[in-house]
Automatic annotation (TrEMBL):
Domain of life: Bacteria
Domain Transposase DDE: 319-435
Organism of provenance: Desulfocucumis palustris
Protein name stated in the entry: Mobile element protein
A Pfam family annotated for this UniProt entry: DDE_Tnp_1_6
InterPro entries attached to this UniProt entry: IS1182_transpos, Tnp_DDE_dom
Signal sequence interval, chain numbering: none
Record field: transmembrane: none
């Protein structure tokens, strides 16, 4: 199903009429197969009973027992964007749909039924309100009505003892009713400029988020992260995070996932997203070596920080024109250096000034609180040893491309748990493919893995 990227309904048809599926499922020719709704029930049972990784884990343990995977691994890590299955909605639609969900969920309360009857708008009616959406005044009036009704409903619910589902619906309404709204000088609600930090973007899938993998690569959905042994080319752990989460935030989750099935990581290779000082220090405490370049922030075409030589022992900083400054700003409490400043007169007469700074007061170079860690990492990434080890990183990109070939680029289901189901089971499929390829023309390995019938 995941291998062929087919829907539940088409999977039912394949099981009935496709000989390849009948062979794989060991079904006789006259077997009718299964009803497609069984697959939805099966997924739900797996998720509810916390069995999402049961097949994935079994395949990994097979690889360990066959000595394909050692228990101490040098691993590579990367993440990819996943387009969510929920429709992305504007502020008006979010509030309207959240109102509808709350009214449906809490209709057992007399206060809700009475309040709902007093609203001008029928929130149970599907579709946007029938107004002239090109008119700014009508949009303003509609927003005021939506926010007012939402506030009234939220206040009414505070007087009642809500169950889990009712509380979740009420909490969602509370967030979407305020996340995009600010009160102007006339004490009226209006849509604020910019995007809220953790903005809900869909009522159908409230865990989706705005995200970006690059400055231009914006998406709405989730991030899938995979951990892979680059030598065996087998995925050892996976994780799903909201689209707005930083890639490095799920490192512990994937490492612990591998550890739970008996795999210890000794080295972690990734791109600059995993090369921060905080990540290095955290993994250093776990005895894990990080192979990742340090991010080199752009400076709008001017000399980046890497062009300056910071000497922490001598409390000095040397610029590309060989001038050394000891003028610095320190933290009031720790007394640690926060930045170096070059004198205004020096920068104004410097021939490299057009390439260095636009400031009238001289160039300022910031100093990270763990600058020594970053300096050591920058020096190491210039060595041949780093280059040799970093060559393994593209292997995980090829694995992600294979996962996307099986449909991982777009979520099949709504909700983080089901997106994790899709990632985990697709990874299990890809790992099984890899084991079949490795055991091809190797009967002993195939027999050890249980991938063939003994002769």
């Amino acid at each position: 199903m995941l291998y062929d990227k087919v829907s539940d309904r088409e999977a039912e048809e394949r099981a009935k009429f496709d000989l390849r599926w009948k062979v794989a499922l060991e079904l006789p020719m006259d077997e009718a197969g299964f009803d497609f709704t069984s697959l939805c029930k099966f997924r739900t049972a797996i998720i509810v009973n916390d069995k999402i990784s049961v097949v994935f884990d079994k395949i990994i343990k097979m690889a360990i027992e066959a000595e394909i995977l050692p228990k101490d691994l040098e691993q590579v890590i990367d993440s990819t964007s996943v387009m969510g299955a929920g429709a992305v909605q504007d502020t008006y639609t979010l509030i309207q749909k959240a109102m509808r969900k709350v009214i449906k969920t809490t209709k057992r309360f007399p206060q809700v039924r009475k309040l709902t009857a007093s609203f001008k708008q029928d929130y149970l009616k599907k579709g946007k309100p029938e107004i002239n959406w090109d008119s700014k005044e009508e949009r303003k009036k509609m927003l005021k009505e939506l926010v007012s009704d939402a506030n009234s409903l939220i206040e009414a619910l505070k007087e009642n003892d809500l169950n889990k589902w009712e509380q979740e619906a009420a909490d969602m309404l509370s967030q979407v009713a305020y996340q995009d709204i600010e009160i102007n000088d006339q004490q009226e609600p209006e849509i604020r400029q910019g995007v809220a930090k953790d903005r809900i973007i869909s009522i159908a899938d409230s865990e989706m988020r705005h995200g970006h993998k690059t400055s231009k690569g914006l998406f709405n959905g989730y991030k899938d992260t995979i951990l892979e042994d680059p030598h065996a080319e087998i995925i050892t752990s996976v994780a799903v995070s909201e689209g707005n989460k930083h890639d490095a935030e799920v490192i512990n989750e994937v490492l612990n996932g591998a550890k739970s099935i008996g795999i210890s990581t000794t080295q972690l290779t990734g791109d600059t997203a995993y090369g921060s000082a905080e990540t290095r220090l955290a993994l250093q405490g776990e005895q894990i070596k990080v192979i990742a370049p340090v991010a080199n922030p752009s400076n709008k075409g001017l000399f980046p920080k890497s062009q300056f030589t910071i000497n922490l022992d001598k409390f000095s900083c040397q610029c590309p024109n060989q001038y050394v400054t000891r003028l610095c700003t320190r933290d009031r409490i720790t007394k640690a250096i926060k930045s170096f400043r070059f004198p205004e007169e020096v920068c104004q007469s410097c021939p490299l000034r057009p390439l260095c700074t636009n400031s009238k007061h001289g160039r300022v170079v910031s100093v990270h609180q763990h600058e020594a860690v970053l300096q050591e990492a920058r020096e190491y990434q210039m060595t041949r040893e780093f280059q040799d080890k970093y060559r393994l990183r593209p292997i995980v990109e090829r694995k992600i491309a294979e996962l996307k070939h099986h449909g991982l680029g777009k979520a099949r289901y709504r909700g983080k748990a089901k997106v994790l189901f899709q990632l985990t089971w697709t990874s299990a499929v890809v790992n099984l493919k890899r084991l079949f390829r490795m055991s091809d023309n190797n009967y002993a390995l195939a027999k050890t893995l249980g991938l063939c019938t003994p002769i």
